[in-house]
Amino acid sequence: MSLRYGLLGLLAEGPASGYDLARRFEEVLGQIWPAQHPKIYAELRRLADEGLIEVDAEGPRRRRAYRITDAGVAEIRHWLTAGDVDHTIRVQPLLRSLFFWLMQPDDLRRHLDEEARFYAESAARYRAFAAAKDRGDYGDSPQVRSMRVTVEAGIRLYEALADWATWAGTVPPTGAGGPPADADPDPELT
Amino acid sequence: MSLRYGLLGLLAEGPASGYDLARRFEEVLGQIWPAQHPKIYAELRRLADEGLIEVDAEGPRRRRAYRITDAGVAEIRHWLTAGDVDHTIRVQPLLRSLFFWLMQPDDLRRHLDEEARFYAESAARYRAFAAAKDRGDYGDSPQVRSMRVTVEAGIRLYEALADWATWAGTVPPTGAGGPPADADPDPELT
DNA sequence: AAAGGACATGTACTTCGGTACATGTCCTCA
DNA sequence: TGAGGACATGTACCGAAGTACATGTCCTTT
Questions:
Q1: Which CATH number fits domain B2-82: 3.30.9.30, 3.40.1210.10, 1.10.10.10, 1.10.150.130?
Q2: Which of A45, A102, A180, B29 has its CA 20 to 30 A from that of A142?
Q3: Which own/partner pairs from A57-62 qualify as long-range (CB within 8 Å, at least 24 positions apart)?
């Protein structure tokens, strides 16, 4: 359901084609809210059927740009204020971390190094984005200010994960490595 | 695919039934890796078919506990070391934040307050969990130490989000509220 | 003895996201 | 002028996740 509102929200900034929207999703939301172009085109058609967006212009290579309608703006505003927030975050690396005790210490060390590097790079990427915005490279519309807030969340999230991976690699003697614990494993569960 | 390894990993700690696993997923992973019981039972059957787990015991009310096999341990170890990490995190609140400029300032303020509270509570819940572990309430097996690492990530993630929501509510005069910008909206995209 | 609640497992259906594959269009550069 | 690449849109299918609904079992309490 969120893709729908993602598209609506981006279109609220101005007309765009499916291709544009796919690019924007990739740019800003690549890691935070991925969307594939087939889904985008399909959803745009559905939104158009419901009158929440309409064709704005047809361009060169079959390009079709859409514009948000008043009904569409009302719809996304309603979602933003009345819709309830989905707080589930699926973070595969955290699921993995539950099972670190199954890894050989040096495999674990390597894994955590890579993770830390990845998150640090992501944070840096968002930080660069934020710096560009703070320099005024994108002007100062309300949209840009909102984007800046989103980017700040990205920075903080990735910094937190980078710090965590670093901490996990150094602080506790986490990994075990040996054979699976077969001596009285968690009797509470049997 | 991750549910599969989640189950395998939990079973590596000791035998458990689908019901136990559903409870553990809910307890520890509730917000970070949700799983519904129908999926769990189905996946357990599939894992048993493939010989990665086997029936350990049948209990009272149709209860069927599974035990991980050597092949299962090998499988999850392989996933942990050789499988590649999925770094996509879907955070709906961040998607929403891109569109804060569409909200009325007081709606936005209310929204951010609620978000901050929610994240702070989540962080506190994980912190309590961590404190119990550090007190030694759960003993000190490798499994418990891994869980502690996972919990630490939860704490840091939720603290980061709580701080972010608070910051977003106070620092910048984010929201706009007025009508959708129809004066030259993002010409780069048309 | 009956009733209610926690324990325990499942089927069926829907929706959503991901991947593979296919196609058409225009511009640029050798 | 022909080839390659970016632009642009789509179909088809699959697998994962979510929701609703259904059922059976055992224990505790009144």
A1: 1.10.10.10
A2: A45
A3: A57/A15, A57/B190, A59/A17
Q: Give me the residues of B, 123-142, that contact A with CB < 8 A.
A: 141-142
Q: For nucleic chain D, which protein residues have CB less than 7 Å from any of its atoms?
A: A 17-20, 22, 37-38, 41-42, 44-45, 59-65, 88; B 1-3, 34-36, 38-39, 60-62
Q: To the nearest whole percent, how much of chain A has pLDDT over 90?
A: 77
Identify the residue with better confidence: A139 or A186.
A139
